[in-house]
Amino acid sequence: MLPRQIILAPLAALLTMLSVSAQGATIEITIENLVFSPANATAAVGDTVLWVNKDVFAHTATARNGDWDVAQPPKKTVPLVLKKAGTIDYYCRHHPNMKGTLTVAPRTGQKL
Ligand SMILES: [Cu+2]
Questions:
Q1: How far is the CA of 38 from the centre of ligand 1 (A)?
Q2: What's this model's pTM, rounded to 2 decimal places?
Q3: What homologous superfamily is domain 24-105 in, according to CATH?
Q4: In this structure, what are the phi and psi dihedrals at residue 72, rounded to the nearest 5 degrees?
Q5: Nearby residues for ligand 1 (ion, Cβ within 5 Å)
Q6: What is the pLDDT of residues 47-71, one digit of tens each?
């Protein structure tokens, strides 16, 4: 009886901490050889996308709906914090054949 309570109490505390820190995951989208990878990614509001540009060219991740426009210098990693939910098609302004889709879910359980 007693040992079980001793084990469960710290576990409950740990779960509470995990749910607090669960706001804001980090997703990586890599750009290499003029390709976004993964081209289809999912995230949630509050998450951070790290755009990892492995090319020696500058790129952009430009949302077609105007939500964001991230300039990506060569060989740099640029963060973007997602503030709006939606399915966002994006492309590179320098290389219009470079395309991707980012699906941003609303954050659940968010306190206002
Ligand atoms: Cu580009």
A1: 15
A2: 0.76
A3: Cupredoxins -  blue copper proteins (2.60.40.420)
A4: -125, 100
A5: 59, 92, 94-95, 98
A6: 999 999 999 999 999 999 999 999 9
